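Hello,

Our lab assistant flagged a job as stuck in the queue for most of the afternoon. It eventually completed. Since we weren't sure the result was trustworthy after the delay, we are filing this so someone can double-check. Below is the sequence as submitted and the structure that was eventually returned. Let us know if re-running is recommended.
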Amino acid sequence: MSEIHSKKTYNLRSMIAGKDRFIVAHRGSSGTAPENTISALQHAIEAGALMVEVDVQLTKDDHVVLMHDPGLGRTTNGKGIVRSMALDELKTLDAGSWFNEQFIGEHIPLLSEALQLLKNHAVCINIEIKPPQGEDDHIARLLAIVETVIAHNMQHVTLFSSFHHESLRYIKHNYAGLYTAGIHLPGDKRLPSEIASEIGCDGFVCSLRELTYAKAQDATKRDILMGVYTINNESDFRKIIKYPVPALVTNFPKRIKEYVQQST
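-- returned structure --
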């Protein structure tokens, strides 16, 4: 199994069918820049990642922004919940200084900004859909995310993934042409093909610890795109290289791409 070296296959269907290894930059190049920021995306692009994984939240005024946590405290100088703040308020926050003073002034980006940047560089995107929380109207949130992707004509290069498999089922039922990937649930003994049969997903994602030959072989035989996280060092890479897994999810895309190139 080799790496895709060309971006001529800039669509998920070709990447699923090709079964070649490629790099997925986790929250962007989050090992070298603050996660889910434009800088992290730019680092990932420069590293040659063919896909970038991002997390999204909804603002008070229903804008979709890149942010992993519901709360602002860990990755910004703000306090409170993303959903309780309007976009104009969020724009005033610093989302980079927590990582390194080099990134002081980094802003919280809109999903639309990320999509346009990745589109300009022919890089695919994996959007993780968070499970419902509290009184969250997760269907409204889901629709806002999906419609943003459609508005940018990025359907053919966007993979929606989630631990909340019902969200993926909803996407497939209402947008049959979109691509989805179920993330492995703790304690779930099902093979990727069994999950795909139930919710109609195109991909399956699990941690390196959860990976087995049975899962990898099942996904390969059934043309299910398989991704494994988080491959960050040589030890991780030596483990993953033994399996037929195409999508290598990493915080350090440049480093892991170099390992892939050295192994071919």
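-- support follow-up --
The delay was a queue issue, not a problem with the job. The result is valid. Residues 75 and 169 are 31 Å apart (CA to CA). The beta strands are 22-26, 51-58, 64-66, 124-128, 158-162, 179-183, 203-207, 225-229, 247-250.
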